Amino acid sequence: MRLKTENVQCMSESVTVYGTTRETGLHALAAAVNALEAAGGRQIAVSVSAEYPAHAEKDTIYKTEKSIKKICGEKGISYMGALFSENPLLPVPAVTVHGMAYSEQHRDTPDGKRQMQGKAVVLSKWIGMDGMLQIAAERRGELEKHFAPAFMRDVFSYRQKLFSEREIEIASDMGVPVVRQILRGGIFAALWELAGELGCGLDLDLKKMSVLQETVEICEYFKINPYQLTSAGSLLFVTDDAEQLARRLREAGTESSVLGYVTGGRDKIIRNGEDIRHIDRPAPDEIFKIYAGKG
Hints:
- By secondary structure, the chain is an alpha+beta fold.
- Helix content is 36%, strand content 28%.
- It has 10 helices and 12 strands.
- It has helices at 24-38, 58-75, 112-116, 129-138, 140-146, 149-156, 165-173, 186-198, 213-222, 242-251, and strands spanning 2-4, 9-18, 42-52, 78-86, 94-103, 120-124, 178-182, 201-205, 231-239, 256-263, 268-272, 275-278.
- Strands 7-9-6-10-8-11-12 form a 7-stranded mixed beta sheet, with helices on both faces.
- The longest helix is centred in the N-terminal third of the chain and has 18 residues, at 58-75.
- The protein starts with a strand and ends in a 17-residue tail after the last strand.
- The relative contact order is 0.18.
């Protein structure tokens, strides 16, 4: 939600993440903060609300809040407190981070086809990374029986990649007009929403959508589609100078790739070699499959 005055734009963002571990709040915090920063938000403040079923471990809920508060202190984010409540209808706890910020510049979406046709779409980091981390935390015991300790260490090393302030800063310096985070529903949902927002079509290459090997293996184990998996921390940029943006992101230590281009039509095309598919209306996020049968 955004409220504009003559000189200032106030904005808010709320993100809910479900989970039973203390890291659940980290994912909600990163997603909310990234979304606000991508919209040009500054001086971010957050509050937390959490609902939990009667059988939930209350200590984990409070440790989640403590973890959020600690990260806020490290990143200079104002922490405004938390509210907890029991909800017997939930199978697993739900942690919501409510973020607020302001911007002295109004970053509006450019006016559709006239301004956007021919611009490139750039991806930062890897699709499904956020969801992979959530799944690994929720099913850690099971995964540790299947994968080597070194593999699991590699998986959790990507937690430090959830926040995207550096990539957003680079895009801002270059005047990139559109920056969007990939959230619920994964990259397919994000691309569908982006095309609708711009009023344009897309022509993209599936093989350019970077995915971690760890994500591939965990998704294969649980029969999950990584292209429909939440990807907080991964961003989509629409820009005139894709190669320079990708180069600067790589120089800053961030994986990046040019996916393709915005087109003047309405077709949302993804190419995979000679195969062509159209992006469908967003489906439920694949992350929910790991909670099937709980409650």
